[in-house]
Design brief:
mainly alpha; 58% helix; three-stranded parallel beta sheet
Length: 125
């Protein structure tokens, strides 16, 4: 059974959407818990390629999906296309009023990962 069969049942995904996710390359410019959450979501969804800041995140991605292509770029910074999602996500999470720093980190990582998946699927809220 395809490990992505359940998400492929969603109208927004389907077979063609899963292929777009698999062909997506995402830069994870976050660090710490937020980066770990983003990597878990993206690798679990079947993103084909990730660029991360450290080896630990690369190991995590490969443990989730051994077929994923991961590049480690320690100086990875917010750039074109990534700036909007990461910075907007940070502002959005602030407005949620989460008082616990760990909760904010988890929310930020999830928000950035879901934004990247929406972009790959060409789904706009």
């Amino acid at each position: 059974m395809n490990r992505h069969a359940r998400q492929m049942q969603l109208a927004e995904v389907g077979q063609s959407g899963q292929e777009r996710i698999k062909s997506a390359c995402v830069d994870v410019v976050l660090s710490g818990l937020a980066a770990e959450v983003a990597v878990r979501y993206l690798a679990g969804a079947g993103v084909g390629s990730l660029r991360v800041r450290d080896v630990g995140l690369a190991r995590l991605a490969r443990a989730i999906d051994s077929t994923i292509h991961v590049e480690v770029e320690p100086r990875l910074e917010i750039g074109e296309g990534v700036a909007t999602s990461a910075l907007d996500a940070s502002q959005t999470i602030t407005t949620l009023g989460l008082s616990d720093p760990a909760s904010r980190e988890v929310a930020l990582g999830a928000h950035v990962a879901l934004h990247a998946l929406r972009a790959a699927l060409r789904v706009h809220p």
